[in-house]
Amino acid sequence: MRELLSGQGIPVPRFRVFPLNGDPREFAKQVVYPCVVKPLILSASCGVIRANDEEEFMGVFRRVGALLTNLGLVARDEQARWILVEDFVPGSKSHWRVWLTQGALQPLAIFDKPDPLNGPFFEETIYVTPSRLPSDVQQNIIACAERTAQALGLREGTGAWGIPCECARSVGD
Length: 173
Hints:
alpha+beta; 33% helix; 4-stranded antiparallel beta sheet
């Protein structure tokens, strides 16, 4: 999905996917810092950790691998054998809910996380609405949601997406 969205000009952080059984020392040389290390299989930000340099990266990579192994996921799910690493995007985050009817997007709400989540861990917190973001940023978020739905070929139903607000600021540029 990230490749598809990026190819459509929708801003996504740079990312790489590395095999869990690979050498984190080698992977650490291939990413930009700070970065965020994420398991592909967990949800609610479980196992998502920021690394600021190569040394931290190696420890974080091993920690996420141990989490996946200890939960028994590596033994039973191929996705648990891969770790996503992406650029860290600082600042506040937003989440939007939309309704699609015949490809037409109707925004329902934009929610903000009240505090920036800059790590090293990204625990789930509350969302607040109405959004406190400036109206031009909110319009950029809506435009990004519309372009995202079109790029993914979505035409009907409800959707929920999260976006770093810094990415939303660049959507209209």
